[in-house]
Amino acid sequence: MPAVEITNLCKTFKDFFGRRRVTALDGLSLAVQSGEVYGLLGPNGSGKTTTFKIALGLIRPDSGQVTIQGHKPGSLAARKQTGYLAEESTLLPFLSARESLRLQGALAGLSRAQSKRRTDELLEKVGLNQAADRRVQGFSKGMQRRLGIAGVLIGDPQVLILDEPTSGLDPLGAVEMKQLIAELRQQGKSVLISSHLLGELENVCDRVAFLNQGKLINEGTLEDLLREKETHELRLSPADPEAIRALEALARQRGLTVISSKAPMRSLEAFYLSVLGKDKPKP
Amino acid sequence: MIARATAIACATLLQQARSSLARLVAALLVACVPVGAWLMGQDAASRAWAARTLAAEGLRFVLPLAAVIGGAFALRPSMKQGWALLPARRMEWFFGAALAGAILALGSVALFAGGAWLAGASIGDAALLVIPRRAALAVGGSQSPNEAAQTARRWAAVRGKETRLTFEFESPQTTSLRGEIDYELIWTQEAPPARGVPFDVLVFAGDASQALASQAGSKCEVRALSRRRAAFEIAATPPGRCTVLIVPNDPTLAVGVREHDVVIEAGQTSQVASLALLALVALAAALLCMAVTLGFRALTTAPTAALAGLLLLASLTLLPGITSAGQMAADRRASVESEGGQSDPWAELENSLANLPPLLPAGDFETYLHGRTVDADVAASALWRALAALALLPLGALLFGRRQIAR
Prior knowledge:
The structure holds two protein chains of two kinds.
Chain A: E1 4-14, E2 20-32, E3 37-41, H1 48-56, E4 63-68, H2 76-81, E5 82-85, H3 97-107, H4 112-125, H5 141-153, E6 159-163, H6 171-186, E7 190-194, H7 198-204, E8 207-212, E9 215-221, H8 222-226, H9 241-253, H10 268-276
Parallel strand pairs in A: 3-7, 3-8, 5-6, 6-7
Antiparallel strand pairs in A: 1-2, 1-4, 8-9
Chain B: H1 2-17, H2 22-40, H3 44-74, H4 90-123, E1 127-130, E2 139-140, E3 142-143, E4 153-157, E5 165-171, E6 177-182, E7 184-187, E8 199-205, H5 208-214, E9 218-219, E10 221-226, E11 229-234, E12 240-248, E13 253-258, E14 262-269, H6 272-297, H7 302-322, H8 327-337, H9 345-354, H10 362-369, H11 378-402
Helix pairs in contact in B: 1-4, 2-3, 2-4, 3-4, 3-6, 3-7, 3-10, 4-6, 4-11, 6-7, 6-11
């Protein structure tokens, strides 16, 4: 059974007089398997957020259906199985980080002792244990984001819906978030991500879907979608100029076109991490 | 469900308590009556009146109004508020918000009433203890024929069959007794009345039979207040069962008095009980207003819900006053329209609207304004209003569960 199954979903927003204004979803069907990270891509107004809202039970579809671990969206069982991280902070500003997590733990049905234990664990995990008793209103956007993800994880949901998970995070925070998503995948959780930063999705998603005007345009694994079958990239180490010239000559001799041959550049993110000394994996 | 609703209510209250205006509002609630009374009054009597007025009007009008506005904005069904996204059902969110609102209203009322009590205590204002009517154990005198027992006027005359009217009551431990009597007269002879007040008032310890046998009562000082109203006063009354005798003293007149026309006040007491009762009445009314507004808010925007709540508040407080179906109007109308003999559905609707129980019984607030103790019976009606508010919540929660949160 897929963790999230969306079948022929349609939703049209109407005005006060019942006239059709916007067709947000038009027969969308997709399935997210357990232990899979699934990315939703598309321009503004393509229906990503509407899909999330229907999956969370906030709005009802005109037709079609969504199941979360086999449960109807909005039901308590579905809500307990779902963790949602909104693009903007939805935390209560006058509560401390610890109180926020305790509240979410209580709502997720944890006992007082369980809630306390999970709160301490998650504060440690997202690096907020030093700020645990500070009020959320004084947090930076990145800290609020990290607290948000801790809140999502406190009830140990099987399905995570993350809207722009790296929004507001510094490069290091973004890398940590991606590491966290990878950990969640290893734990067998299903993650549905929407992001405008295509590079972010590229690194973490198993499959991606492209939406436009409420329709599914393309779907597949990153391997299937991104592999360039007409070209080939070869990296050599060490960069010996003689050997490179010889290889280029051999390629031309075989009738191939050398499109590019240059020293590769590191990404700015990789450089930033190396400057901070965070580029090496944790022991 | 209860645990989750309670958790939501606790978090909401914590949010409110930590907001920057919370302490200022709490201080204002406590201080508004004492400061207002001090500013508005020149001497102790006028300050006492100002304190009672501010307290009564604050409880009667401002609190339900605040409950309507608060109820309209207590729920914010949008994704940005976060509650929509938490792992709780919509119904639990609704109940949590309602519980938090009720606790806030209770706290606000307690602070306001506490301030009013402080004002009264510092000025030295005290309430007169009105002996409850149910403590009147028996009424004696000859009853007019064709009158209901409850509303019957009893008659006595110097040369009549009954020469005195008796009212028994339980007197509290007190130092003085005073009262007012509304009465009616019938001329029995062709002669003008000889005195301003055509009866004496005597107070006896014990029940009526003991009083009549002992003939050792204390005569009260009696003075006319208006055309058919007299006041009596006596310095000391023994506690326990007492009897008031109204003895006509003008041979030309018969005096008629109804049970409800005799108001007996014994001594002075603290305002705490009266304030607490009025606070309870106002709190129950506020909760009812808030429950209705929350119900509207489940379906509409906050301004629409506030408007609907205000209309309801205005209807429930004004309808009995604005319909023409008051007792006098109804009697007059019945006498005029009886010839037609056909029932008018509009008139019936008007009657039924006029018979709606008022949201805030004005009489109890007037009693407090007059410096008298409020009858404890009002607590029961307040309880009914609170129960009505409680009964409305599940309906609102169901409606809220069906609401779509698009933004």
